[in-house]
Amino acid sequence: MNERIDRIESLLEQAGPDATELVGELLDLYGEGLARVMAVAGEEAAARLAADELVSPLLLLHDLHPLDTRARVETAIAGSSADVLAVEDDLVRLRLRAGGCRSSTAAMRQAVQDAAPEIERVEIEFEDTALIPVESLAVRRAPAT
Q1: How does DSSP classify residue 79?
Q2: Which pick of 43, 60, 63, 131 has the fewest CB atoms within 10 Å?
Q3: Structure pTM?
């Protein structure tokens, strides 16, 4: 998919104004058709369409995706050791829980940006972990006999 998009962008850079206008008109036409499909699809079918790796970016392109940015990000990181702290404009902040693999941050960033291409920045913070839990440092006294 990304290769195809890169190829289209490369061709558009070389295209003249008429070709660029033609592409814009085609995008508008396909977007209107896709909007009609989504209107009659119903919630369940819309969710299945949104989960399709080829259809999902088209829904995003035409602002027809049934899930908002936060929901798409949460779906993308579901099952990982991260939690969504905030979604603000083009920024997502995640917190990696203790025990989570710090080496997976690049994969997590990519998963977020694949699910929400409008996100430009992904900040990941790590949950503080004490080497020795504070509770275990308390002196325990034997009960008085």
Answers
A1: T
A2: 131
A3: 0.68
Structure tokens at 134: 């504070």
Residue 31, Cβ neighbours under 10 Å: how many? Answer: 16
In sequence order, the 6+-apart residues with CB closer than 8 A to the CB of 100 are 80, 81, 82, 126, 127
Here the tokens at position 47 are: 């969710």
In this predicted structure, the answer to whether residue 132 has a pLDDT above a threshold of 80 is no
Name the nearest CA neighbour of 94 among 74, 75, 114: 74
Query: At 82, is the secondary structure helix, strand, or coil?
Result: strand
Q: What are phi and psi of 138, to 5 degrees?
A: -70, 140
Q: What one-letter code names the amino acid at 58?
A: L
